[in-house]
Write a structure and sequence with these properties.
The chain is built from 16 helices and two strands. It has helices at 3-13, 19-25, 32-45, 63-68, 73-77, 92-98, 107-125, 129-150, 157-166, 175-193, 203-213, 241-257, 261-275, 282-296, 309-322, 326-343, and strands at 48-51, 58-61.
Amino acid sequence: MDISREVLQYLHYHPRSSRDEIVKGTSFEGSDATMKRLIAAGIQKGDIVAEGKARATRYRLSDQAFIMMPLNLDTYFAQDIDERQVQTCFNFDLIRQQLPTVTLFTDEESALLQELQAEFRQHISEMTENEYRKEMERLGIDLSWKSSQIEGNTYSLLETERLLRESKTADGKTKEEAVMLLNHKDALRFILDNPDYLQNLTISHIEDIHQLLTKELSVDKGIRHRRVGITGTNYHPLDNEFQIREALQDTCDLINHKENVFEKALLTLVLLSYIQAFSDGNKRTARITSNAILIANGYCPLSFRSVDSIDYKKAMLIFYEQNNLYAFKQIFIDQFRFAVETYF
């Protein structure tokens, strides 16, 4: 790892550090003048913020760097759950103060996404309505399967296709697994039949989608009013219904004010999962709501078919624990490319 990257990694986990602390906490072996230049370059680039003066100066990452810099997931998850240095509580500043100032995609990433979107628009302009519907149905089957698999559903892709197309359940599977998949189908059909539904995101829209996804499952309806734990992390979501609703409203406001549709979709994916507004079904709701926003704006939806479930969960956990979005952004870009190239 180059030393400038190591300095940023150190400041991510040790905000408000002095220059001496940075030197001791990294593998830096150069002169004091060299470290000064490294930090000054980080400040000029907008990655580091200096606070205080002279010997009292302390350094921290800018919001942009803290949220969007690459973190090494292999190193991070090599640590036991109780050894990781995590933010255990909900970050109230994240949605109102930090994310509004952050640019989620680099110029190169934005250009790639727009190029893929243009390819999608060109391809669907050459399709008949029937051809378009068939591709959307194929994408919907893949999305229903992968979204449910991420949540532990054991149906195979072929079994899912038979269930959704022929209403034939698979042997040895529970009724709940079939219902989960069929609920995805209903939610996607609703979105396709009402393409403008998510032009403007509201709490009631999110609740409607959650209700479609959890119909006939043992899941409490509406915003939860008790604590919920998340397997694999020491991050604890909000447990106060008023604060949950406030966080959801802040999320809706943030997303509605964003002009970039890709940013809207990515923020929906991570923030609805981070808030955990419901007793269950939060990530499913996030994936369908995010796709509804893409569809409402004429963008290609994501099936997530080729994503590894473990990689998805790790990217989500590092957002919970560190509020770092880099790994999940890479998944989003990869899955958008996959969807455009695979279905349309």
